[in-house]
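Hi support team,

I'm filing this because I wasn't sure whether my run with zinc ion finished correctly. The job status page said complete, but I'd like someone to confirm that the output block is well-formed before I use it downstream. Pasting the exact inputs I used:
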Amino acid sequence: MSVPQYPVGSLLTAAETANRVEIDTLAPDGTVLIIAPHPDDETFGCGLALAAAALRNRRIAIVLLTDGEGSHPNASKLGPKKLADLRSNEFVRALSFLAPMGEVNVLRLHLPDGKSRYHRSQLLRVLPFSLAQSASVVWSTWRGDPHCDHETAAALGLEVARRLSVPFWSFAVWGRFGKRAIPTGLQTFHAPGLVDLKCKAIAAYRSQTDPQVIDDPNGFTMPASLVTHFATHPELFIRG
Ligand SMILES: [Zn+2]
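And here is everything the job wrote out:
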């Protein structure tokens, strides 16, 4: 996936006139189960909604598909294990800003970063966790995100929601950029009062936003223009 440099795209244009969705609709009483492909998607993609749900005393549970060890494949001083540990620490720190009042239960599947495909075995691991957490809604990345791990999360999220008979919402991360077919049910969520928290959570992901942190000329760095965009723009949710 090539990383766009500027926040433009057909979903973003459509979002300008899309309906707003309220947090009580996105997060009914109970537990919000979020299926995130990588540590940081929960922050960039739905950090405002996550924080708003936590403020409404919803419990938060996260299924983390991968450890994010693929973001810097040629890091000279960090192997995949140390990179995974670094990203795990960033994930915990980001959540400490978004959901400071409550414990966030996390299930890690340790799938290979950048190589996952939806498989029934994932469902068999996630369903018992979802039931134990009393999930009342499932959020995942959008199936239109052009990244295989994001597609895996979308397929898994849809199936978990279907098995539990609870609502399913997906949030667009990379699919918001570029030319895409506009999905029916696109809505936006915004909470300007929580932008500061989201900014702090994003800042926790130094390995993804500061090219000086890890020595890898081929490593991923979120362009500054996109960091600002994700921090301040309404989040894009698609029902179903
Ligand atoms: Zn991701």
